[in-house]
Amino acid sequence: MSDQPARWTPATVHPDMWVDPDDDPRDSDGPSPDGELPTLLEFLTDYRLTLRMKCEGLTPEQLARRSVPPSTMSLLGLLRHLAEVERDWRNWITDGDPLPKLYGTKDADFEGAVADQSVVNAAYADLEREQAATDAALAAHPDLGTRLGKDGTAVRELLVHRIEEYARHCGHADLLRECVDGRVGQ
């Protein structure tokens, strides 16, 4: 007998998918976006949605389950971490004083990811709020070549970095979710 959950997916059309194509909110029937900015924003939106999908249907205990020692990584920790980095990215593009960390000291985003519904609710609320605030700050600068903040970070660089961060953590979420309940898929 193994402690490892059996691998599964609700997809019936392609067994390596998270959901069937007709049920996937990330897929659109229309053409791909025109232009660099709309393309980058679509990729960011899809990776954000993928992370949420990987967390759906889990209890606070499952969301807070750590990967492998000594790592403190969990799905809940990823939600909190991405809220923290959204805030940090806003700090990159401001000329003013930086906003304080959401969760305090280094690694508190992961270490504070405990199995409590109020912590889960707060993590989702924090992530939505921080994403919206960073999106709004960048929407004021539609020219991807615009350089912002004390270091002159280009809007393009920030958008690509955000996509990279979400994509990397979606890979972590794939493995974390499979360890929690065996669910697999892109």
UniProtKB/TrEMBL annotation:
SUPFAM superfamilies associated with the record: DinB/YfiT-like putative metalloenzymes (SSF109854)
Q: Which InterPro entries match?
A: DinB/YfiT-like, MST-like
Query: Pfam families in the record, alphabetically?
Result: MST (PF04978)
Task: For the region Disordered, give the residue spans.
Answer: 1-38
What is the protein's given name?
Putative damage-inducible protein DinB
| Organism per entry | Streptomyces candidus
